Amino acid sequence: MDLGLSGKRVLVAAASKGLGRAIATEFVAEGARVAICSRERERIEQVARDIGAEVGIAADVSTDAGCRAFVQGAIASLGGIDVLIVNAGGPKPGTFGDLDDAAWQTAFELTLLSAVRLTRLALPELKKTKGSIVFSTSTSVRQPGSPAYGTLMLSNGLRAAVHGLLKTLATELAPDGIRVNAIPPGRISTERIAELDADTAKREGVAIEKIKERFEKSVIPLGRYGRPDEFAAAAVFLASPKASYITGVSLQVDGGMLTSMW
Ligand SMILES: NC(=O)c1ccc[n+]([C@@H]2O[C@H](COP(=O)([O-])OP(=O)(O)OC[C@H]3O[C@@H](n4cnc5c(N)ncnc54)[C@H](OP(=O)(O)O)[C@@H]3O)[C@@H](O)[C@H]2O)c1
């Protein structure tokens, strides 16, 4: 299927590795012109060369200056924006008792304010192109009380706000022809997931392999962690003109892990 992305100008935030990198790679494969960012200049420039992105920009999306550097740098290179992929590093794991105000403030800047700022900065260009926005979030927003998400207090608390933001934006921006959707990952094999498994293993005093085994045997109906390219396929479709009548949707990519109906 031709997704209609050839020549489209796409910004993928936080893309030196993991989900962001996989999404950027998939857009390049679809013929899009891609700008990516992450915090280390040398690394992101190398990744841009490796995957065929047009530009790699050093930017910390947890800051206003970083969001500006990414969006303005991408516009300067690409000449405009058709698609914005909102993504960032994950907030640190922890239970409520582990976290002080400083930890909440840091996570707020990283998880919620980055989404607000990137969207605000990209909007003037997206209005011109009737483009689309995809927020990479987490399945934990649907079932934050599940034991599977027990140590993700910051993610559970703040991503709920990200989903409130994107649902409201989907309505607010529809008259401008801009679509806004979310792709919550379940357990896609990346360094972040390996770190979370290591954290859980340490808390429980068991081997890290046991954590993965538990998810694969008892929590994920498809019986395995997902691959980043499987996640990226959903992002690319939702962002594309082929999804022209889809907005305000949250399409989880989780091997059946979420058990709720909606
Ligand atoms: N993988 C999953 O199954 C899963 C599940 C639920 C939620 N998530 C969420 O999805 C997001 C991406 O996860 P991932 O698995 O791809 O993580 P990852 O493998 O750790 O990759 C994170 C990426 O974000 C970049 N990054 C981190 N902080 C940044 C910042 N402040 N500004 C700009 N770039 C930044 C990192 O590059 P630098 O460090 O070089 O800046 C890296 O490229 C996270 O928020 C994670 O919590 C993932």
Describe what you observe in this structure.
The structure is a single chain. This protein is an alpha/beta fold and 262 residues long. The protein has two domains: 9-187 and 231-243, 3-Layer(aba) Sandwich (Rossmann fold); 189-225, no CATH class. 48% of the residues lie in helices and 11% in strands. The chain is built from eight helices and six strands, in the order βαβαβαβαβαβααα. The protein has helices at residues 18-29, 41-51, 64-78, 101-129, 153-173, 191-204, 208-219, 228-239, and strands spanning 9-12, 33-38, 55-58, 83-86, 132-136, 179-183. A six-stranded parallel β-sheet has the order 3-2-1-4-5-6, sandwiched between helices. The longest helix is centred in the middle third of the chain and has 29 residues, at 101-129. The model has no long low-confidence stretch (mean pLDDT 96).
Termini Cα gap = 27 Å
Apparent shape: globular
The CATH class assignment of the largest domain is Alpha Beta
Portion in helices: 40-55%
* CATH structural fold name of the largest domain: Rossmann fold
Radius of gyration: 18 Å
* Average of pLDDT: 96
- How does CATH name the architecture of the largest domain? 3-Layer(aba) Sandwich
Task: Tell me the domain tally.
Answer: 2
Task: Give a quick account of the main beta sheet: strands, pairing sense, barrel closure.
Answer: 6 strands, parallel
Which structural class do the helices and strands define? alpha/beta
Give me the CATH superfamily of the largest domain: NAD(P)-binding Rossmann-like Domain
- The helix-strand sequence is EHEHEHEHEHEHHH
- DSSP E strands, number: 6
Number of helices: 8
